[in-house]
């Protein structure tokens, strides 16, 4: 037995702390500090779980759960943890670029390269993706009146594969280096000749795990929407968030495969000497560019469409008005989904196609702005004549409309190949895509958290701190990214770790200030959550409808029971819950209850995730025994599971009835709160509908009809 | 909804097992979607091969110099006959629920499938040893091995799946979950035929002809 057989290519110098001991510098100290935070964070979590005795509940109630609601929450938890890391990395890069005019700054070039690679990879694959996936998982089944997704275990497996990828990226902080090839990992730089270490392999396997998880998620959610809608929920009665979930799921089914193919080819080049993307022997990196962006461009819409869905829900709810142009929003979403496959080439206008090809893709790119424009007008017109409440989600929405339009304009500029040749690979591009993704996707997710948090946990978030956080995030974003447009036009290239032009300094300083504000916003958001948990008694809204909501998810208690709906609803219009409140037929008891079958918890998914993580780690470090054993074990788990027969449990009708009748009685007994008192402790989640304003708020009760 | 409205592409249980048919709707639809995403993967590999087999030859051999059309034709027949055998296994399951019959047809399917994989591995062996055409030789060969190898890997995992299903048929019998798994495996197996027809046409016939 020798060392390499057991540990592959890991040596003691692979550990991040070795760099600090052998070659002390500020850059190495920062790397070691990050590694220490990862190790100490993991250690602190272990200690906390042990001291509090939370290991058993964590395993029993969460990790083994196949409930779409818990899966959704776990996705978002992953996203927030990974966001904390990636946003700190962003601030470090800003500080480095500010410090590095006519000097080397404080980071080594290699360290800086790892920072922008992990920042991009994490933000896309392990923040934005889990965030939208978690949200779709949680909200969509509730909106269509379903008890779970079509394949609950598959859903848990997707989650665990994503988690395995996230853990792998966190491990790369401590063991070894990450790739310096950016989030898009273009070969030949990421080939074995120019990146011989383990860094690119970390990227390949983390991304592959996330990508397989996303494919399975897309499949699962699409089938759920097609097959599990409650009676009466025709496609054109679905809430817009569900529509965008459907489009995103379809995009995931089609778009993730090219990424998987590209990462596998890159891996074969690196591990087995194939020649897909190498410089010689018939390799061609343009194939990589095409495959990657064949995934990469739809990915942009995979991220933004669910956020569009959130905006549609938020603007209608907080304007107390039916969404304007529902049908046009649906068609616009579908158009975007289709067109998103026809524009990938605009990511490499400068890489050698003929002018005609560029022109076609440039025009296609500009066209995709049209359905997006339709949506913006619909959101604006929804507000017209509405009674707008300027709550935190609505502030995010208005900020989104203003800044997203500016970002979209720069996108139309970039869609012109002539302009693109001038500013490609500069900070102008960096400014553009951050301008789309931050106000669009990220703030959309923040708005969603503010909006649906009371549904998920049964209490509202502290409104004042939410606004404070918004007022740091929004100007912070403008300060951090608008100077980059200027810098880009002055010629500042992206991914550059030191400068020689002193004219850049004031702009970089402004951007640094913005990064500071963003960090402050994040700190306030964490504070908001902590404070809200502490004050959950005052903020409680267990009756489920704190915002005078419109879709079905607001008609059930907060947090929802395991079975979601005591009796599957029967809908006859759009905004079914809002219509029921208006007609005075909400909160009525159903005629009869039935037993409900729910899937049992199972260790299948966490075991698959564990072995997938070990498999990927084995591949990264060439620990072949580990890779082979883990791979076999993954399939052993799958096969063993196929022999299990007792996979469901029955919740008796009496249990469901007791819980639901208690909820309905409480809802009927509580006076509805009007919108101007919505942010006070009077708001227990029973809304006095805006539609009934001025009328007496009593609602007939006791009559047994089919429930809504 | 009436039974006929729930019909899905492929073998339906509607006439013989209404309960199983109802359970099949969601599961089978989900599997069709999975097959679609798998086909996207193959489409990407085909596209890569299309580019590499023209531009990626470098110093290595050309397609016509390394392909053995006879072997590829025999492989095609093996795979098509195995699919036919699987079809008969499914009919046996649907109309007779006869364990022995299903197992015999599955065994035949599996043997033909295994013969296919064996022949393909032999092709690889011949290419590497006699034509000096390993995947490392050129971009074209990298793409060739990835495309056919991914297909062979699918067939091999189908074989493993088939062994497990044979065990389940023997031990558990024709419960609804077992039936639905067999139906999905059948779809998977037929899809691999379709992909192979593509490979035979575009890789082998076209490669030798041009």
TrEMBL record, chain A:
UniProtKB keywords: Cell membrane, Copper, Electron transport, Heme, Iron, Membrane, Metal-binding, Oxidoreductase, Respiratory chain, Transmembrane, Transmembrane helix, Transport
Stretches that traverse the bilayer: 29-51, 72-95, 115-139, 151-175, 202-226, 238-268, 288-311, 323-345, 357-377, 398-416, 436-453, 465-487, 507-531, 623-644
Protein's recorded name: Cytochrome o ubiquinol oxidase subunit 1
Lineage: Bacteria, Pseudomonadati, Pseudomonadota, Alphaproteobacteria, Hyphomicrobiales
Enzyme class: oxidoreductase
One Pfam family linked to the record: COX1
Amino acid composition bias (Basic and acidic residues), ranges on this chain: 674-692
Record InterPro entries: Cyt_c_oxase-like_su1_dom (IPR023616), Cyt_c_oxase-like_su1_sf (IPR036927), Cyt_C_Oxase_1 (IPR000883), Cyt_c_Oxase_su1_BS (IPR023615)
Stored Gene3D superfamilies: Cytochrome c oxidase-like, subunit I domain
Entry-linked PROSITE patterns: COX1 (PS50855), COX1_CUB (PS00077)
UniProt EC number: 1.10.3.-
GO MF assignments: oxidoreductase activity
Lipid bilayer topology: Multi-pass membrane protein
Organism annotation: Ancylobacter vacuolatus
Family: Belongs to the heme-copper respiratory oxidase family.
From TrEMBL, chain B:
Enzyme class, broadest EC rank: oxidoreductase
Record flagged with keyword Nucleus: no
Top-rank lineage group of the source organism: Bacteria
Domain Heme-copper oxidase subunit III family profile: 29-208
Gene3D superfamilies tied to this protein: Cytochrome c oxidase, subunit III, four-helix bundle
EC number: 1.10.3.-
Membrane topology field: Multi-pass membrane protein
Transmembrane feature ranges: 29-51, 71-90, 102-119, 152-174, 186-207
Record key words, sorted: Cell membrane, Membrane, Oxidoreductase, Transmembrane, Transmembrane helix
MF terms in GO: oxidoreductase activity
Location within or outside the cell: Cell membrane
Protein family according to the UniProt entry: Belongs to the cytochrome c oxidase subunit 3 family.
PANTHER family per record: CYTOCHROME BO(3) UBIQUINOL OXIDASE SUBUNIT 3, CYTOCHROME C OXIDASE SUBUNIT III
Name assigned to this protein: Cytochrome o ubiquinol oxidase subunit 3
Organism: Ancylobacter vacuolatus
């Amino acid at each position: 037995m020798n060392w390499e057989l057991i540990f592959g290519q890991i040596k003691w110098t692979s550990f991040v702390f070795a760099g600090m001991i052998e070659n002390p510098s500020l850059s190495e100290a920062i790397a070691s500090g990050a590694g220490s935070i990862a190790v100490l964070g993991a250690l602190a979590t272990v200690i906390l779980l042990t001291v509090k005795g939370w290991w058993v509940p964590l395993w029993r109630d969460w990790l083994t759960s196949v409930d779409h609601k818990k899966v959704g929450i776990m996705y978002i938890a992953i996203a927030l943890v990974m966001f904390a890391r990636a946003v700190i990395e962003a601030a470090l890069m800003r500080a480095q670029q500010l410090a590095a005019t006519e000097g080397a700054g404080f980071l080594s070039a290699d360290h800086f390269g790892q920072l922008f690679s992990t920042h991009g990879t994490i933000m896309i694959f392990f923040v934005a993706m889990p965030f939208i996936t978690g949200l779709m998982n949680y909200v969509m089944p509730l909106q269509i009146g379903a008890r779970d997704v079509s394949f609950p275990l598959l859903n848990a497996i997707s989650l665990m594969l994503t988690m395995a990828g996230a853990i792998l990226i966190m491990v790369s902080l401590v063991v070894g280096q990450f790739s310096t090839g950016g989030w898009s990992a273009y070969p030949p730089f990421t080939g074995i000749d120019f990146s011989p270490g383990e860094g690119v392999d970390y990227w390949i396997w983390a991304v592959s795990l996330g990508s397989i998880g996303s494919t399975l998620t897309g499949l699962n959610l699409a089938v759920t929407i097609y097959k599990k809608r409650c009676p009466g929920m025709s496609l054109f009665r679905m809430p817009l968030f569900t529509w965008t979930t459907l489009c995103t799921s379809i995009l995931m089914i089609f778009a993730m495969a090219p990424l998987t193919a590209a990462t596998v080819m890159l891996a074969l080049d690196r591990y087995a000497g194939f020649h897909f993307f190498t410089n010689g022997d018939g390799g061609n990196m343009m194939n990589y560019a095409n495959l990657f962006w064949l995934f990469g461009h739809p990915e942009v819409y995979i991220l933004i469409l669910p956020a569009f869905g959130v905006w549609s829900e938020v603007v209608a709810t907080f304007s107390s008005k039916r969404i304007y142009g529902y049908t046009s929003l649906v068609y616009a979403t579908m158009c975007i989904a289709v067109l998103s496959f026809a524009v990938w080439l605009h990511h490499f206008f400068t890489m050698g196609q003929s002018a005609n090809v560029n022109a076609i893709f440039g025009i296609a790119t500009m066209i995709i702005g049209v359905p997006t424009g339709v949506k913006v007008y619909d959101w604006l017109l929804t507000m017209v004549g509405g009674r707008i409440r300027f709550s935190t989600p609505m502030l995010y929405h208005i900020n989104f409309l203003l800044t997203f339009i500016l970002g979209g304009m720069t996108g139309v500029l970039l869609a012109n190949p002539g302009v693109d040749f001038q500013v490609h690979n500069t900070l102008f591009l960096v400014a553009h895509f951050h301008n789309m993704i931050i106000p669009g996707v990220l703030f959309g997710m923040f708005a969603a958290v503010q909006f649906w948090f009371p549904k998920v946990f049964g209490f509202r978030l502290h409104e004042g701190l939410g606004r404070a956080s918004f007022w740091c995030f929004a100007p912070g974003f403008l300060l951090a990214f608008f100077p980059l447009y200027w810098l880009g036009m002055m010629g500042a290239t992206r991914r550059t770790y030191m400068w020689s032009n002193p004219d850049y300094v004031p702009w970089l300083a402004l951007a640094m200030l913005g990064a500071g504000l963003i960090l402050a916003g994040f700190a306030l958001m964490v504070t908001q959550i902590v404070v809200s948990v502490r004050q959950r008694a005052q903020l409680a809204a267990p009756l489920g409808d704190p915002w005078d909501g419109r879709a079905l998810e607001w008609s059930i208690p907060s947090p929802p029971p395991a079975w979601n709906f005591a009796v599957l609803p029967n809908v006859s219009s759009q905004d079914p819950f809002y219509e029921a409140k208006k007609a005075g037929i909400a909160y009525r008891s159903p005629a009869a209850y039935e037993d409900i079958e729910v899937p049992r918890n199972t260790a299948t998914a966490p075991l698959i995730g564990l072995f997938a993580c070990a498999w990927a780690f084995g591949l990264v470090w060439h620990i072949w025994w580990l890779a082979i054993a883990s791979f076999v074990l993954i399939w052993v788990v799958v096969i063993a599971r196929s022999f299990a027969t007792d996979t469901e449990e029955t919740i008796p009708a009496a249990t469901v009835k007791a819980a639901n009748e208690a909820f309905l009685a409480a809802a009927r007994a509580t006076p509805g709160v009007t919108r101007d008192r919505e942010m006070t402790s009077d708001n227990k989640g029973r809304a006095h509908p805006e539609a009934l304003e001025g009328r007496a708020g009593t609602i007939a009760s006791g009559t047994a009809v089919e429930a809504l | 909804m009436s039974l006929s409205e729930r019909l899905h592409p492929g073998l339906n249980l509607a006439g013989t097992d209404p309960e199983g048919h109802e359970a099949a709707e969601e599961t089978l639809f989900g599997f069709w979607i999975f097959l679609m995403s798998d086909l996207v993967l193959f489409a990407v590999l085909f596209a890569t091969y299309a580019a590499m087999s023209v531009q990626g030859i470098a110093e290595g051999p050309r397609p016509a110099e390394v392909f053995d059309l006879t072997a590829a034709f025999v492989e095609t027949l093996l795979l098509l006959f195995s699919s036919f055998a699987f079809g008969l296994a499914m009919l046996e399951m649907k109309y007779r629920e006869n364990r022995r019959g299903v197992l015999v047809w599955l065994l035949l399917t599996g043997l033909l499938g295994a013969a296919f994989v064996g022949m393909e591995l032999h092709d690889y062996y011949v290419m590497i040893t006699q034509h000096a055409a390993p995947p490392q030789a050129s971009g074209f060969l990298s793409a060739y091995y990835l495309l056919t190898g991914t297909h062979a890997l699918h067939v091999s995992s189908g074989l493993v799946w088939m062994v497990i299903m044979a065990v389940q048929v023997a031990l558990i019998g024709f419960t609804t979950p077992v039936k639905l798994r067999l139906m999905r495996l059948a779809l998977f197996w037929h899809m691999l035929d379709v992909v192979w027809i593509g490979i035979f046409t575009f890789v082998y016939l076209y490669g030798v002809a041009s």
